[in-house]
């Protein structure tokens, strides 16, 4: 077999093939063996008719298409390897000559990973902004810690107010009909949380334990239950109990419970400030990294094949489906509740997908231009992150990996090294 290679554009190539007659004959035999059991010829039991008899009966070309399909994967993959071609889409075939005893001649046009023309990627002027941690930030974080340590305490000497937790029985009515899904007993609800239909929680403010009342609300126009969407309804509600949140005092005893290292309020505030400053530095570093990559991508020229963007959209949808599954919901149900279609979500993901592909291509181009490769120590460090997450030693984790897994970690370490190189060379 001989092949030729022609670059049609920055993202498309053409391969030419001339395959010896003997190879095509192998394909004909494979096609015959595959199809003979399905072909009926008068005078022969099914599957027993010789190849020549079948060809005489149906025409010599009856096996051509299947013969081509039988040998194409092997010769196509060999040509891709020979010319170092990395395809991203299905090939477009043009058969020029095919027949028994003849050379098989055909061409393939296919989209490939595109060339990247890098622009300026060093000495970029980037403003790195680190948020200042104020006393108000520290106090707000402490209040959140106190809130996490709070408890609900029963009250019976006053009516309910906003931020109270009320325990209620309720039943929803559309006219005289009690509708499905609108009834519960012993339900805990924090007033002001916005977890019920707008207007429901406000009408419970001022109500006392044991009191019964009618709550009049209107379902939103886009409510998931179509039979209730936009309808005014009445909920008959009984207040079973009222609780208020009791916050712990900010003292040394609270600090010893809330912190593993601090013993006094002042020490705790210093610890909180240090943690907030570390988080602010992390956000700033992440934003700085994103801006460096964004500017380098803007400076590059690359013609991305649509197939690469579609593949990335598919990947994003699979991630979305997994997230929904973790929450106990099917993706199709999510579309139903939100009123979206799969195609609408695909369209929404198109631009983020294009940006992801562009970033990957540009980083790979920088890595190649700068001859960046990860060392064994850097690859081990990348693996170590995952080993720690899986609560295993690095050596135990390595034994679990396939060759493909190791290649993934090597590439991930090299890409991170590339990003670090770009950040170090930004001004």
Account of the protein in words:
By secondary structure, the chain is of the alpha+beta class. It folds into three domains: 2-111, Alpha-Beta Plaits (2-Layer Sandwich); 151-246, Chitinase A, domain 3 (Roll); 280-316 and 345-424, Trigger factor, C-terminal domain (Trigger factor, domain 2). The chain is 46% helix and 19% strand. The protein has twelve helices and nine strands. Helix 1 packs across helix 3 (64-82), helix 6 crosses helix 9 (342-369) and helix 10 (376-389) crosses helix 12.
Outline the low-pLDDT stretches.
Answer: none
Q: What is the class of the largest domain in the CATH system?
A: Mainly Alpha
- Overall residue-averaged pLDDT value: 92
What can be said about the biggest beta sheet? Answer: 5 strands, antiparallel
SSE series: EEHHHEEHEEEEEHHHHHHHH
% residues in beta strands: 15-25%
- Per the CATH scheme, the topology name of the largest domain is Trigger factor, domain 2
Give the termini separation: 53 Å
Estimate the global geometry from the Cα principal axes.
extended
CATH architecture of the largest domain: Orthogonal Bundle
Helix/strand-derived category reads: alpha+beta
CATH superfamily of the largest domain, please? Trigger factor, C-terminal domain
Helix content: 40-55%
Summarize this structure briefly.
The chain has 427 residues and is α+β, with helices and mostly antiparallel strands. It folds into three domains: 2-111, Alpha-Beta Plaits; 151-246, Chitinase A, domain 3 (Roll); 280-316 and 345-424, Orthogonal Bundle (Trigger factor, domain 2).
């Amino acid at each position: 077999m001989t092949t030729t290679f022609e670059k049609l554009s920055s993202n498309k190539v053409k391969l030419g093939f001339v395959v010896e007659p003997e190879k095509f004959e192998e394909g004909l035999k494979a096609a015959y063996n595959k199809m003979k059991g399905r072909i009926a010829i008068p005078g022969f039991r099914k599957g027993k008719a010789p190849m020549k008899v079948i060809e005489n009966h149906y025409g010599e070309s009856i096996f051509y298409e299947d013969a081509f399909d039988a040998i194409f994967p092997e010769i196509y993959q060999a040509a891709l390897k020979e010319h170092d071609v990395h395809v991203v889409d299905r090939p477009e075939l043009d058969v020029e000559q095919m027949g028994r005893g003849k050379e098989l001649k055909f061409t393939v046009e296919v989209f490939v990973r595109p060339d990247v023309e890098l622009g300026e990627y060093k000495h970029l002027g980037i403003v790195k902004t680190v948020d200042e941690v104020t006393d108000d930030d520290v106090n707000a974080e402490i209040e959140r810690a106190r809130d996490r340590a709070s408890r609900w305490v029963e009250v019976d000497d006053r009516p309910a107010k906003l931020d109270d937790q009320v325990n209620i029985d309720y039943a929803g009515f559309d006219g005289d009909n009690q509708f499905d899904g609108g009834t519960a007993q012993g339900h805990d609800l924090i007033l002001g949380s916005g977890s019920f239909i707008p207007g429901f929680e406000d009408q419970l403010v001022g109500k006392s334990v044991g009191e019964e009342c009618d709550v009049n609300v209107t379902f939103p126009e886009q409510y998931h239950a179509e039979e209730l969407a936009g309808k005014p309804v009445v909920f008959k509600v009984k207040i079973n109990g009222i609780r208020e949140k009791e916050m712990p005092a900010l003292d040394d005893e609270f600090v010893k419970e809330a912190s593993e290292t601090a013993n006094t309020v002042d020490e705790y505030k210093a610890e909180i400030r240090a943690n907030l400053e570390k988080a602010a530095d992390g956000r700033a570093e992440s934003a700085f990294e994103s801006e460096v990559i964004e500017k380098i991508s803007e400076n590059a020229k690359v013609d991305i094949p649509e197939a690469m963007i579609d593949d990335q959209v598919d990947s994003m949808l699979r991630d979305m489906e997994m997230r929904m599954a973790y929450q106990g919901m099917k993706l199709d149900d999510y579309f139903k509740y939100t009123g979206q279609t799969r195609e609408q979500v695909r369209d929404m993901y198109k631009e983020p997908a294009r940006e992801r592909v562009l970033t990957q291509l540009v980083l790979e181009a920088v890595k190649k231009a700068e001859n960046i490769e990860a060392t064994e120590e850097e690859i081990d460090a990348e693996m170590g992150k995952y080993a720690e997450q899986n609560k295993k030693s690095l050596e135990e984790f390595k034994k679990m990996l396939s060759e493909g897994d190791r290649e993934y970690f090597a590439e991930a370490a090299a890409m991170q090294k590339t990003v670090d190189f770009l950040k170090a060379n930004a001004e």
